[in-house]
Amino acid sequence: MRPEVKKALMLNWIEKTAYVRQKIKALFAILVMIAVIQFVVEQLCEYVFVHYRHEQFLSQCAGLVFQVGLTLLIAKFAIRVIAVPFEQITAATEKVAGGALNITIPCLHHQDCAGRLARSLQSFRENSQNQLKL
């Protein structure tokens, strides 16, 4: 399997199948890995550029920019993968509670907690529609 396909499958698994706890653990593991890489790079640069303090400062600044950029990218991904589905389901739940029983329930195809919640809301909506018909 090609690496880009494997990466896409892994991201798809994290987004639509992994439970919230697994998603958070994976994100924190990535953040810890970034911190370790930053430390290793800093130590290597300090060893290599022992006579060039200016280059050492530049490498530390570059490492900091890299780490902040990756952290912001991971935060954006976490919001999209964890928070947005629950916000969409919450909005749908509020509409159903207000009597709108003909809305489309989001995230039904997810296999994670958001998908389970969405399918439960759909069941509730269908049961409510059946009760109204009776």
Note down, in words, how this protein is organized:
With 134 residues, the chain is mostly helical. Helix content is 81%, strand content 0%. It has helices at residues 3-16, 20-48, 53-97, 113-133. Helix 2 (20-48) packs antiparallel against helix 3 (53-97) and helix 3 (53-97) runs parallel beside helix 4. The longest helix has 45 residues, at 53-97. The protein is elongated and about 85 Å long. 9% of the residues are buried. The mean pLDDT is 85.
For the structure shown, list the relevant keywords.
134 residues, mainly alpha
Compose a concise summary of this entry.
By secondary structure, the protein is mainly α.
Give the arrangement of secondary structure elements:
Elements: H1 3-16, H2 20-48, H3 53-97, H4 113-133
What amount of the residues lies in strands?
under 5%
Rg to the nearest angstrom? 23 Å
Number of helical stretches of at least 4 residues: 4
Instruction: Briefly note the structural class of the backbone.
Output: mainly alpha
Helicity level:
over 70%
Main sheet properties: none
Pattern of helices and strands: HHHH
Total DSSP E strands: 0
Overall pLDDT score: 85
State the end-to-end CA separation.
53 Å
Classify the oligomer.
single chain
Global outline: elongated
| Uncertain stretches of 5 or more adjacent residues | none
